[in-house]
Design a protein that fits this description.
- This protein is an all-beta fold and 311 residues long.
- The chain has a single domain (8-305), classed as TolB, C-terminal domain (Neuraminidase, 6 Propeller).
- The protein contains 1 helix and 26 strands.
- Strand 12 and strand 13 form a beta hairpin.
- It is globular.
- It binds 2-acetamido-2-deoxy-beta-D-glucopyranose (2 copies).
- The site of one 2-acetamido-2-deoxy-beta-D-glucopyranose (NAG) has 8 residues, from loops.
């Protein structure tokens, strides 16, 4: 997710207290412009967003010399944030006029678009909903079992929006102190809820400024904190464990693994990720499903081989 401009470079692996998982740099944007979020198509191609561009990008990790290719450019926007698959090969994405200095989106500029890859050679982009009162619309989650709606994290208002991509209806879905930033007096960036994902009827989310990873049953009930760290977006594996893009105090960044069943939390990639923003597993074949793709705010696409993690 979105925050301060990183100045780090990708560091080589060096001796750590942990045995770090192997990582590989797949692509680096020419100008270092920030990569924000990603989703994986069933074809195994990645869809990638950048806060610095209104163009959705694709990258095929199976190609010989893979590079970033434009998919679609959204009008009246300067950047893209969360992305998620709502139906097979149909994705929803947040587009807006972002001010990365004030960490806000221009009033009335936040739209949820759907991008449908099932309709032919060229995907069809549709403006599906608008969130006129958004502060900073950030992460996006599909809702398994309900392809009509997406949940969108609002990092500065500290709440979750629900947007219906069929009717365009938008409402506040959930508001909780665990989603708010600590306050304007706190250390920058004042980002509350950042990444969010629905799994098995529960909403998992990070709060960057509060340094928390939590879950809540959307039907009500208390928020349960599962982990601590300066987290951005994350993904859940088949076992329900969370892999979180993490800002580390002593390094450019890493990856934290949290098991919500046991609350066990450990850093599995230490120091070698350059301001990671989001993570998503590959989808095709045994090898790829153990490959975690990571975007970074320094414009890198990195793969992590998680097979050594006893998956
Ligand atoms: C990560 O690396 C930092 C800096 O080298 C080190 O201080 C820290 O102990 C390491 N953490 C783990 C969990 O290995
Ligand atoms: C972005 O926000 C900063 C800080 O509030 C402000 O000075 C600047 O004018 C804004 N930029 C635009 C393009 O609105």
């Amino acid at each position: 997710m979105l925050w301060l401009t990183p100045t780090f470079i990708l560091l080589p692996l060096c001796a750590h207290a942990i045995t770090p998982l192997p990582i590989k740099l797949l692509f680096q944007t020419a100008d270092g412009s920030a990569l924000e979020n990603l989703a994986v198509r069933s074809s195994s191609e990645l869809l990638i967003t950048s806060t610095a561009s209104p163009t959705l990008l694709t990258f095929d990790p199976a190609a010989k010399n893979p590079t970033f290719t434009d998919v679609v450019t959204f009008p009246n926007a300067n950047g893209l944030l969360g992305i998620g698959e709502i139906r097979p090969d149909v994705f929803a994405v947040v587009a807006s006029e972002i001010n990365v200095t004030s960490l806000s989106t221009a009033p009335g500029s936040v739209f949820i678009w759907t991008v449908d890859f099932t309709v032919g050679a060229a995907p069809k982009a549709t403006r599906a909903a608008s969130i006129p009162k958004a502060g900073l619309a950030n992460g996006l989650s599909a809702v398994p079992g309900n392809p009509d709606v997406v949940l969108v994290a609002d990092s500065t208002l500290g709440l979750t929006w629900e947007a219906n991509v069929r009717t365009g209806a938008v409402r506040v879905f959930l508001q909780d102190e665990a989603m708010t930033p600590i306050g304007t007096s706190g250390p920058a960036p004042a980002l509350g809820i950042n990444g969010l994902h629905v799994r098995d009827g529960e909403l998992f989310f990070t709060n960057t400024q509060r340094r928390t990873f939590s879950r809540v049953a959307p039907s009500g009930g208390a928020v349960q904190q599962l982990g601590t760290g300066e987290f951005d977006d994350f993904t859940l594996d088949e076992e329900g464990r969370a892999w979180l893009a993490t800002s580390l105090p002593t390094s450019p960044g890493g990856l934290t693994l949290i098991d919500p069943l046991t609350n066990e939390e450990r850093i599995v990639v230490n120091t070698t990720l350059n301001a990671p923003s989001s993570a998503a597993f590959g989808r095709v074949g045994a090898l790829e499903t153990e490959t975690l793709f990571i975007t970074t705010k320094a414009g890198q696409l990195v793969s992590v081989d998680t097979s050594a993690e006893g998956v």
